[in-house]
Amino acid sequence: YYMDYMKSVANLKAVMDEKKQKKAKASITPIQKAVRYGMAAAVILIASVLGVLNMNTSGDLSVSPVDQIGLDVVRSAEGISGEVTNDVIRRAIRLATEGDVQQAISILQDELEVTEDPQLTADLALSLGSIQYNNGNYDASLENFEKVVRQDNVDLLTLEKGYWFLGNTYFQLERMEEAEVAFRNAYDLNGAYSRVAKTYMDALGNVGVTASE
User: What stretch of H or E contains 20?
Assistant: First the structure.
């Protein structure tokens, strides 16, 4: 009799434990489902956000290369900035603004061949490259802007212009990584062109056109 009693107690306990387990499963299942649905929704939301970001960063650039480089022309009796002191550069600017572009290029090239002064070389190359750029001859202007930034002992503004114009020329030629480097160099000089150079540098970086450092 005692053994039968113990078996009955054991069976009753087993039945009660089974009911408890079923009840626990029934109460946990909705929570698990909710968690799973929540995780799935989060994945979808993240994927949607990433999709929007990809659309924003893979679209058109927010900046474009400058169409024309302004020569040192002002409204004065001669029409040329007083900051331009070299007679050859003044004459070349006047010729270019009057439409005689080839003559302007020719006299600047002749002067570049004979000068040995780094600052004058940079000034001549900057003017020559600007005239060539404005006439769509980007390969030739590239050589002259590179010549500007290679010079030693030139003033900060000349060097800044050299890098800024160099970046725009690379941009015109769709050499984006080199354009980003030139804009970065202009920005690092922390002068008059620093802010605009950073805008271009950031725009190129935002579409994944970041040069290796």
Answer: helix 2-57
- Residues with Cβ within 8 Å of 144's Cβ and at least 6 positions away in sequence, in order, are 125, 126, 128, 129, 132
Boundary-marking domain end, from 16, 33, 56:
56
Instruction: Please give the Cα distance from 75 to 80 (Å, whole number).
Output: 7
Q: Are residues 8 and 51 in the same domain?
A: yes
Residues 108, 196: one domain? yes
State both tokens at 87: 């007679």
The CATH number assigned to the domain holding 175 equals: 1.25.40.10
Average confidence (pLDDT) over 102-116: 96
pLDDT in tens, 4-25: 444 444 455 555 556 555 554 5
For residue 28, the enclosing domain spans 1-56
| Tokens encoding 31 | 């929570």
> 10 Å Cβ neighbour count for 84?
19
**Per the structure block, which two tokens stand in for 93?**
């600017």
| Contact in structure between 128 and 142 (CB atoms under 8 Å) | no
In contact, 201 and 170? CB cutoff 8 Å: no
